């Protein structure tokens, strides 16, 4: 199906009053091989609401659309795992333009997340204070074995990478499939401790993690914790380590954490280098998935379970036991990034 036909379907869904999520579901249920993303539909619905029903591409002669840096900053901080290509598509500009604007708002990729290229003094101070406090607490009363940590990650269907090739002067390059801009992917949230994985949850395509979704996931995680790691649940009093993403810090999430009796470990903003799931679990997962190409969500989920099954218990212990070293490195660097 041509792109223009997909756009006609989006226009039809808009006129019939469908929400963005409903439109994604309706179109993908009929044309699964031409799957559209919620980001794409939201972009076109925004144009339709403004009265712009021209579904052709912008003429090349037109000047490049400017990006609102405030809007870009808000979007990146709402979901720091988005790729530059995804952001470019969302804002309707070329990747080169979005990279310019990301630089203007001082963002750079670190451990697969957008963070400030140069931390402000206030953020360095927050990191320094947090790490000093955590080092002092752990020295007085070691607590790494009580940590339950979590984070979210997009898993791509196609994890093959294009690489350079050594060829004779007259030898044509070997074919390597080019990664699509709008790659199919699944988001997974995983909870784990030094004793192993407690719970993981794959999001339904087209949906996103809200505070309500996160609260439901927390309930599921605590049920699994009581079964899989009863000592942690009953005797050790788990401490939750997660970042300060909006779903994690919303009012109803805070209320849910209080209801569950979960203490939240101090974690400064813009600090994936201090988050075990980012610097350890997901880094290892990326290596495991490298070169793999999946054709279905089931295959992605199977591969994720295979990754978990392939890890020995020392993998999880090591990931959390290195935290004091990370904290100390942050202190030694006066709150700045150290990798």
Describe the secondary structure blueprint for this structure.
Elements: H1 3-15, H2 20-30, H3 38-49, H4 69-78, H5 84-91, H6 95-104, E1 107-110, E2 113-116, H7 121-140, E3 147-156, E4 185-193, E5 196-202, H8 211-228, H9 230-236, E6 239-241, H10 246-249, H11 251-260, E7 263-264, H12 276-289, H13 297-310, H14 313-321, H15 323-332
Helix pairs in contact: 1-2, 1-3, 2-3, 3-5, 5-6, 7-15, 8-9, 8-11
Characterize the structure shown.
It is a single chain. The protein has helices spanning 3-15, 20-30, 38-49, 69-78, 84-91, 95-104, 121-140, 211-228, 230-236, 246-249, 251-260, 276-289, 297-310, 313-321, 323-332; strands at residues 107-110, 113-116, 147-156, 185-193, 196-202, 239-241, 263-264. Strands 5-4-3-6-7 form a 5-stranded mixed sheet. The longest helix has 20 residues, at 121-140. The chain contains 15 helices and 7 strands. With 339 residues, it is of the alpha/beta class. The protein has 2 domains: 3-116, no CATH class; 121-332, Nucleotidyltransferase, domain 5. The protein starts with a helix and ends in a 7-residue tail after the last helix. 50% of the residues lie in helices and 12% in strands. One of its GO terms (biological process) is DNA integration. GO terms for molecular function: DNA topoisomerase binding; double-stranded DNA binding; histone H3K36 methyltransferase activity; histone H3K4 methyltransferase activity; single-stranded DNA binding; single-stranded DNA endodeoxyribonuclease activity.
